[in-house]
Design brief:
The structure is a homodimer of 449-residue chains.
Chain A: H1 15-26, E1 32-39, E2 49-50, H2 54-63, H3 68-76, H4 82-90, E3 96-99, E4 105-106, E5 113-118, H5 119-124, H6 126-150, E6 154-157, H7 166-179, E7 183-184, H8 187-193, H9 203-207, H10 212-222, E8 227-230, H11 236-250, E9 257-262, H12 267-280, E10 287-290, H13 296-304, E11 311-314, H14 316-319, E12 329-336, E13 339-340, E14 355-361, E15 366-373, E16 382-383, E17 386-390, E18 393-394, H15 401-413, E19 431-433, H16 435-448
Parallel strand pairs in A: 6-7, 6-11, 8-9, 9-10, 10-11, 15-19
Antiparallel strand pairs in A: 1-5, 1-12, 2-4, 3-5, 3-17, 12-13, 14-15, 14-16, 17-18
Chain lengths: 449, 449
Amino acid sequence: MTWVTDDNVSLLTDLYELTMAASYHAHDMNDQATFDLFVRHLPKQRHFLISCGIEHALDYLDRLHFDNDAIAYLRSLGIFEDGFLEFLADLEFTGEVRAIPEGEAVFDGEPILSVTAPLIEAQIVETFLLNCIMFETMIASKAARVSIAAQDRRFVDFSLRRDQGADAGLRAARASFVGGAVATSNVLAGRVFGIPVNGTMAHSYVMAFEDEVKAFRYFLRDFPQDTVLLIDTFDVEEGARRAAQVANELGPEGVTLSGVRIDSGDLATLTRSVRKILDEAGLGEVKIVLSGDLDEHRIEALLVDGVPVDAFGVGTQMGTSGDAPSLGGAYKLVEDAHGPKIKLSTGKATFPGRKQVYRVSGDHSYDHDVIALEDEAPPGGVALLHQVMVEGERCRESDSLAAIQRRCRNTLSLLPERLRSLDQSAEVYPVRHSPKLEGLIRRMQSEAG
Amino acid sequence: MTWVTDDNVSLLTDLYELTMAASYHAHDMNDQATFDLFVRHLPKQRHFLISCGIEHALDYLDRLHFDNDAIAYLRSLGIFEDGFLEFLADLEFTGEVRAIPEGEAVFDGEPILSVTAPLIEAQIVETFLLNCIMFETMIASKAARVSIAAQDRRFVDFSLRRDQGADAGLRAARASFVGGAVATSNVLAGRVFGIPVNGTMAHSYVMAFEDEVKAFRYFLRDFPQDTVLLIDTFDVEEGARRAAQVANELGPEGVTLSGVRIDSGDLATLTRSVRKILDEAGLGEVKIVLSGDLDEHRIEALLVDGVPVDAFGVGTQMGTSGDAPSLGGAYKLVEDAHGPKIKLSTGKATFPGRKQVYRVSGDHSYDHDVIALEDEAPPGGVALLHQVMVEGERCRESDSLAAIQRRCRNTLSLLPERLRSLDQSAEVYPVRHSPKLEGLIRRMQSEAG
């Protein structure tokens, strides 16, 4: 099976990146240029984004190369000059990268990542950077909403089977963890990222035995600790009684039932009656885990309703960002050897110059952000864009995933309360331009007009 | 950067697949079992699906193995017995697979793929098979709708930058081609799948020159054939006049402008006025390509409105199946050594037994499908499930991608007209149960009840 690898990922780009690069090469246009990667307008279902995917983007830039196979394929297209292909064969990324750290909140128009490099290098990495950073940012942002909805309840990423492909599954597990998930069902994500892995059982397991009691008994004996039984294969309340029966029967053997999971039906009603069944069986410590097409809205509704649930398995909606499955990310030339650049297409304007983003806080929460030019006096607040790569080499140690998750928890706690609402109608967070940036925009608009 | 590979993909599974497998192993429960993979209910925005992803699923099954690293990681979790880990280290897929060929239409509840294998093998492949087949089927189905909307116009996959991760990009290009795209912007998909690659230029290219005329002149000289110029960086109509000017200026050098692309603004109005500008410049052959968040509905509206567009670049909405970004695929135990199996959970019932799907046609189009038990007399029509793997080995040569695309075109032409509507309210295609299957379901329901 063909997978994307460090060796072929250089071709995971739009053809036009390479034709433009060839033209720049033919005309010796390879001076330093700066491109900003940002989301112009947040989807109406989102009041904030959580930066994610930077680590993978830097890995990609670090290892960028066109191997013999890539060059041979490009030659076979019959549109590239040999001189350009030789140039590509020697190409490495040598530029500077600044980024907003993973786990930090970002808003409309703020550069999440900014690349300054020789024009050709900066151009050909566009497609991959957008693909990588927008996807992971989108999933971390969705998971952060789930985290807000779940309050102090734990939630686990169950999305792998519904994710859009294999590495979407791997990276959705990481991004969900960044957003607040405590674990994932995805074993490879456990292996690769060190995320705790977690799981229960499937209906097919229960169906493989003559009856539910036998299935529960076997599974609990095989996994006597931290085990969650799935109780909705046949009838949920009957399943709860059987789980309780088996838990009490096996207690003397040292077996502890950790929880039961309900994956279908009217979750609110069923959870209440299962809680009662478990409590009456003396199993007040046994937790109830809910799953089955949950998202932040359903979780919020269950908790507002006082449903006695302890944890959630969240799959499809989180792993695909189901209500907003793409982000309109842009990667735009903002400055080159001739100075700042601006684009005026209808609805797709870009802001010129190398920038810095400042976050200004009030007493207990963020108040507003300011996008300023890099070379102007800081308007106050905390600068969010950090230099992460210089001359093609990483210049900061990677944060641990646990540290990134903590950063996200912290940024969520500092969001103004209205932005923590899951409602679509929340006010937009104020992102201002510094007077100097605003002046530059006006001047360039009037020159172009 | 960590990628999914043939060596680690065995861990790309939910932990519960492995805990269930360990329990089956502990109790010598490894008789043959049959699991069906199907979509219980189509999203309301879909009247048909196009089978896709089978090829990759078979590749995965063909190569399934747990390498030393995988075993070491599983051992580190401290929940698996050594005997099970030794068993896993030797595990290969030895089962039978039947599937509906890629490119063929499929409907609610029809097994797209059916696996018969020793229970443990059949169980642990669940997560990957769902991830792989549902994603590719979802994208091929969306692309097929775009194909219906585009009528005889060509459309190209531009989705890579918005796809949900790297191999989503690679496989979305293939699935879009199956559904009817003529090319992709994704160079790696060209390299790997042999799909024609295609591209224009970005706004940043135009902005890298002092003016648009110079950008157009350079690019056309560098790529004198089959070149499409992007004309909306500043003003679309001005851009069209400049493109025409440069095309006419360079004509004597043997340069031919193939088309212009408009990526923003009021596409209907702009296309009409650009057509006029080009025609008046004697460039009636120059095509107009539209892009910018297009989907089947916007394409249909443009064509119904008589907009003189020649081709489309379709990105985000096709590559993420934006209006229905997940399919509720299920992979369910339907038969084991004890006979047919049934699941009764609310809203998640499954149908028992090894099945065959028959498609019955009327004079000009499909009339209805029948899901029957495999061992009953065929009810007429064409049998859709083909044996593709026996004893873990592929038993059919893979279809070429061109043949799969033709199969899809053919199946779309045979869909009842109402199913080709993009409207949500189309009637559902009739999928019947054979009397013998229906009898089995009733008997098992009453036994369980």
